[in-house]
């Protein structure tokens, strides 16, 4: 029986992403998450608002499962898989995810203890489980954000897979990215988010998450042997012979040739978050089919932004969903005299943030209205929000330069 987590060193320290070094060679995985065999312990170590686990090989919307195969799922809309991705792993599990009605996190776990100031490769194998079908001519495709953050929920880095397309023949595809750990952090949370809402086409499999250490070859240095200086009598000096245009046979100078080690070429390099130009996950439909009206733009110093959202006026049953940088963070919460509280860290690593308030209903007194109290640095703002079934409300925060 293999373990759910294979560890020689366990992840993680804080890191910055960068392009893959072209002269990097990798050790065997320091960490492998392959979901074990049979009825294993859940990889998720924290509560998930949009997803639950089921003991099945065909989980329904908003559920995930660890299974060794799939067969005739949803009237044969899914590919039939006889095994997981791991080579030689008889009856080994993969993670099967059926997209929830609202986009959200389907994997959240804590990994501890990699070496600091070390370059690693993150990799994961993914597959769209849905077959191309006339029943689903305009599919909602899985689109995965992979995020790494501290235990204090400070975002360290994230990267996005892009859409996982449907294929006639099922095929696993590996996604990779490079990061480097600084010395101060010894534990990080690994979070995987499906950016697409549930529906036709948004079902996928995940297997063999790995972290491999990158080893940079030592530079080859050639030195010329030192010769002792001997003081000669000028009277005995002979004229120096003319330099030969070609070295005599057998006397060529030997120069060590630097050979770059071969590296695996990734099947798909994951898009890396550019810290200067923010790149958010693909927005869900509710942000693309409605107008996102800018209500307030605030410039502030680095630090924590505190946000409290109240119903504005009579409490009439208004409910909202809140998206932060296109990721759902509050779903169908009721506005009242008690605040919905949020905290956002703004710094040079994440200098731009967007909050979008989406009306789930209009209450008994349309439109859906609220008041947002914002504390940013020493400044305090009061922002009045109005949203409808055609218009969302957006508040933007930028770091002062």
Structure description:
By secondary structure, the chain is mainly β. Helix content is 1%, strand content 41%. It is built from one helix and 25 strands. It has one helix at residues 285-288; strands at 5-7, 16-18, 25-26, 31-33, 52-53, 63-67, 94-98, 104-112, 119-128, 143-149, 155-163, 173-180, 187-194, 203-215, 268-269, 271-272, 291-300, 303-311, 319-324, 327-334, 340-346, 352-359, 368-376, 379-387, 391-399. The strands form four sheets. Strands 1, 2, 3, 4, 5, 6, 7, 9, 12, 14 and 15 form an eleven-stranded mixed β-sheet that branches. A five-stranded antiparallel β-sheet has the order 8-13-10-11-16, with no helix packed on it. The protein has a five-stranded mixed β-sheet with strand order 17-25-22-19-20. The longest helix is centred in the C-terminal third of the chain and has 4 residues, at 285-288. Mean pLDDT is 79; it is low at 1-19, 243-266 and 271-277.
Instruction: Output the structural class.
Output: mainly beta
Fraction of residues in β-strands: 35-45%
Shape: globular
Q: Give the oligomer, counting copies of the same chain as homo and different chains as hetero.
A: single chain
Radius of gyration: 28 Å
User: How far apart lie the N and C ends?
Assistant: 55 Å
Number of strands: 25
Number of helices: 1
Average pLDDT: 79
Helix content, binned percent: under 10%
Helix-strand string: EEEEEEEEEEEEEEEEHEEEEEEEEE
Query: Can you tell me the residue ranges where pLDDT is under 50 for at least 5 consecutive residues?
Result: 1-19, 243-266, 271-277
Largest sheet: 11 strands, mixed
């Amino acid at each position: 029986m293999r373990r759910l987590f294979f560890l020689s060193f366990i992840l993680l320290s804080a890191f910055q992403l960068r392009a893959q070094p072209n002269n990097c060679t990798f050790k065997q995985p320091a960490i492998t998450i392959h979901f074990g065999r049979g009825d294993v312990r859940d990889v998720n170590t924290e509560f998930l608002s949009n997803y639950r686990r089921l003991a099945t090989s065909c989980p329904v919307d908003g559920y995930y499962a660890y299974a060794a195969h799939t067969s005739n799922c949803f009237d044969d809309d899914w590919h039939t898989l006889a095994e997981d991705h791991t080579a030689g792993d008889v009856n080994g599990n993969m993670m099967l995810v059926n997209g929830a009605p609202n986009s959200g996190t389907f994997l959240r776990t804590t990994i501890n203890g990699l070496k600091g100031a070390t370059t690693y490769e993150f990799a994961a194998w993914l597959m769209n489980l849905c077959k191309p079908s006339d029943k689903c001519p305009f599919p909602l495709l899985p689109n995965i954000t992979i995020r790494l953050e501290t235990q204090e929920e400070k975002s360290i880095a994230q990267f996005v897979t892009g859409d996982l397309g449907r294929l006639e023949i099922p095929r696993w595809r590996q996604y990779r990215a490079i990061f480097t750990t600084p010395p101060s952090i010894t534990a990080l949370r690994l979070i995987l988010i499906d950016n697409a809402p549930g529906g036709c086409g948004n079902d996928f499999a995940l297997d063999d998450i790995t972290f491999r250490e990158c080893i940079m070859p030592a530079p080859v240095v050639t030195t010329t042997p030192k010769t002792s200086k001997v003081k000669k009598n000028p009277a005995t000096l002979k004229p120096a012979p003319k330099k030969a245009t070609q070295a005599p046979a057998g006397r060529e100078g030997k120069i060590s040739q630097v050979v770059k080690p071969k590296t695996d070429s990734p099947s798909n390099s994951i898009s890396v978050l550019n810290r200067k130009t923010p790149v958010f996950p693909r927005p869900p439909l509710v942000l693309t089919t409605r107008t996102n009206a800018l209500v307030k733009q605030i410039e502030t110093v680095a630090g924590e932004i505190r946000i409290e959202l109240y119903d504005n006026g009579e409490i009439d049953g208004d409910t909202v969903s809140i998206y932060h940088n296109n990721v759902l963070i509050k779903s169908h919460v009721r506005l009242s005299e008690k605040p919905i509280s949020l905290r956002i860290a703004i710094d040079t690593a994440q200098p731009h943030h967007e909050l979008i308030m989406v009306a789930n209903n209009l209450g008994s007194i349309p439109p859906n209205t609220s008041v947002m109290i914002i504390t940013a640095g020493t400044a305090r703002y009061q922002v009045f929000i109005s949203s409808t079934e055609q218009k969302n409300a957006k508040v933007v925060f930028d770091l002062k330069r």
